[in-house]
Amino acid sequence: MPNYVVGHKIPDSDSICSAIALAYLKTTLGEPTVPARLGELSPETLFILDKFGFEQPELKTSYAGESLYIVDHSDRVQGPDDIDQATILGIIDHHKLGDLTTSTPLECWIRPVGCTNTIIKMMYDFHDVAIPKDIAGAMMCAILSDTVIFKSPTCTTADIKCVEALAEIAGIEDPQELGMDMFKVKSAVEGTPVRDLVLRDFKDFNMNGNLVGIGQLEVIDLAIFDEMKADLEADIIKLKQEGKRHTVILLLTDIMKEGSEFLVVSDDAAIIERAYDVTLTDNKVWIDGVLSRKKQVVPPLQDAFA
Predict the structure, then answer these.
(1) What are its E.C. numbers (predicted)?
(2) Which is more confident, 36 or 189?
(3) Which of 27, 141, 160, 259 has its C-alpha lying 20 to 30 A from 147's C-alpha?
(4) pLDDT for the residue 160
């Protein structure tokens, strides 16, 4: 029976490309492993898979009795609901260490870099395994996505070097041009149901016993949200109520202006104002320089809840 590798709920490109890349590496090393996903894919991820000729990983939400690798997260609330009934063989992640625990030793690769695929590239190098051209292309795109084409404060020299190496393997002459093509796909929101937009890149966090949901929409021009912002605000109110969340924040991120507008609904808005040293106006605020949920949004908010 093969092992599985899966990323977080509401998977992004890093989760999916990590699953594909790690499954190939483990299988090559004699450990049959299958990539899987916990949800539907975003337009950007579908664009990447189509470009490099991949089928969508298997949709699998239950892992009781299975052995699996976890990629791109280590928070229990973001993983399979029955994770406690599975055997975790390893965690490969670039976020803070979450609350997953194991009863047996495990392989653990956690690095403060911009993307999980950067770490997996290091794993390929460590095991001296050649990366196939199509997998290299997908990994490269995931790094460009997670680092916002190197604009994110999470981006490191390791991410940039990995993109350069993967682009050479994949035969991509201008990776940043391909990155812009991906963000144009991300920015095509017209006709998409509001709830699909809110959940396109959404994660729940347990902050001192409070469930906090944070979504992010990255686009090349924030003006595309002008006519739908009221609908987005109304939907995060519904999402908060449905999920019994303390707070929901939706980040509307402009990658060209390099900042984000926060749409907030909370049981205690003062916590959000304290976390970012801002004043909300009509439950909204623009913050210059904020591009990364992982590095710039989650840590100060967790500190404020603590």
Answers:
(1) 3.6.1.1
(2) 36
(3) 27
(4) 98
Nearest of 121, 106, 115 to residue 3 by alpha carbon: 106
pTM of the predicted model as reported, rounded to 2 decimal places: 0.90
CB 183 within 8 A of CB 139: no
Round to whole Å and give the CA distance between 220 and 135.
27
The three-point CA angle 85-88-89 to 5° equals 150
- Residue listed under structure tokens 């006709």: 191
The residue-averaged pLDDT of 10-34 equals 98
Question: Please, which residues bridge with residue 218 across strands?
Answer: 253
Which residues have C-beta within 8 Å of that of residue 253, sequence separation ≥ 6? 148, 216, 217, 218, 219, 259, 260, 290, 291
| Stretch 164-178: mean pLDDT | 97
Token output for 259: 């900042």
Of 3.40.50.150, 2.40.440.10, 3.90.79.10, 3.10.310.20, the CATH number of 194-305 is 3.10.310.20
Per-residue confidence (pLDDT) for residue 289, from 0 to 100: 96
Asked whether 287 and 294 are in contact (CB, 8 A), the reply is no
Q: What 3-state class would DSSP assign to 135? A: helix
Query: Given a cut of 90, is residue 188 above it in pLDDT?
Result: no
- Is the predicted pLDDT of residue 190 greater than 90, yes or no? no
The token pair that represents 44 in the structure block: 């950007």
CA atoms in the 13 A half-sphere facing the CB of 157 = 0
Q: Residue 73 in contact with residue 79, Cβ under 8 Å?
A: yes
Q: What is the pLDDT of residues 87-97, one digit of tens each?
A: 999 999 999 99
Residues 6+ apart with CB under 8 A from 226: none
- If residue 137 lies in a helix (H) or strand (E), which one and from where to where? helix 133-146
